[in-house]
């Protein structure tokens, strides 16, 4: 399903949805409140006196207020303060903590007979005695009140109906009687319940329950609360429930539809922007794939005024440059006093038409008057020459990686000889011209001495020798050894392999009689 980004949601539809949702939920001027972040939710029949002065928000005797510590306090007609832990509106059950129920003045004062609440558990009568430690073992089968006991003076609760002669109270002093209390009255937490108003069914059905006009009449939708409620609520129970359900479903459906449409519009717009950015990146990279002609001012801008030098050779100096934040290049500034421009023509004419994973890519060139430059892709690990010398053993790549590099160079040479329209002879295969990318994958570079020939041409005519001593094939050095062909690159590759295995640099030979070293049998 595709939605046009030009979809506009009318404001009237949003207002209608809000109206429907508000109608489905019912108008309620007494929202649910909380004293603290972890306190119970407070709604009818309870109300917060300090935040809900409207008497219709609660039922008489169900008043709460918030303490300075954000505790929920239940007001009872007693001298004992109770803190509300939780309220179960469906079961009409409230858990409270009695602040001083275990004090000598708290238990007699904890009388809830005049409040709308009742103890949930069975009620008992007790007589409390303060005894001495000498008779404590005699009373081990009786109820000990630990929270009232003191060191050496345990307090026990005895049933007043028990025979006084059977009670271990010889060394005890009676404190007071406690009537109609649950057995766990001396614990910190108590459970209270209420019977009126009966909003438990409403909580299950999700209906509205609120006090009206300070009388025992409750406004509800589909929930008959008490026998005192008018008959009109009972007669309209089924119809009201159906209306509420339909309106609620309709409001929820429309709200979900609007949210879904807005989400799809957002996703469509985000996807389109991502696609456009992807296309822009591709075009930027594609522009770099084709050799581009730059002016000398462009070259200075790319290299940041030739600030970072990577190396220098016989034909020029190489600087690091940057086309964009993601594309780094190596710029080779050719010496204007060297050669007649043949190297420049060979590089651009040869490398501009080939693309292979093991051949360095020519990004662009500069031919601005007497100033010439070649722009290559940047390879961060420099040349193979720096990793196969035995001088620095810490840079040894390992035999497995050297084998991968050797296979990559062979694939690059095979591509130059067989994979192009015309056969490309490199004539300068050596470690210095093998560059390594960030993963140490080899790429053949420097095509300044390259020549083109037809694939069916068995020999190549050459007027002068070309290449580097130590890697140059014998037939290229002297015609007495045979004709020059693509096999000359294979010979140079063999010398490169010998150097990779032995770590010997052929270019450092200083003796005059070098033919035995340059051309090993």
Task: Give a concise summary.
It is built from eleven helices and 23 strands.
Report on this structure.
The structure is a single chain. The chain is of the alpha+beta class and 521 residues long. Among the domains are: 1-26 and 221-288; 292-377, 2-Layer Sandwich (Phosphorylase Kinase, domain 1), CATH 3.30.200.20; 384-518, Orthogonal Bundle (Transferase(Phosphotransferase), domain 1), CATH 1.10.510.10. 28% of the residues lie in helices and 21% in strands. The protein has 11 helices and 23 strands. It has helices spanning 11-25, 106-109, 200-205, 231-235, 237-289, 296-302, 342-351, 399-418, 474-477, 487-502, 515-518; strands at residues 47-48, 63-66, 72-74, 82-88, 93-98, 117-119, 123-130, 143-144, 155-158, 173-182, 189-194, 210-212, 215-219, 292-294, 309-312, 316-322, 328-334, 362-368, 371-377, 423-425, 434-436, 442-444, 451-453. The strands form 6 sheets. It has a 7-stranded mixed beta sheet, with no helix packed on it. A 6-stranded mixed beta sheet has the order 14-18-19-17-16-15. Helix 1 (11-25) runs antiparallel to helix 5. The longest helix is centred in the middle third of the chain and has 53 residues, at 237-289. It starts with 10 loop residues before the first helix and ends with a helix. The relative contact order is 0.07. The model is unreliable at 1-27, 203-207 and 212-237 (pLDDT under 50).
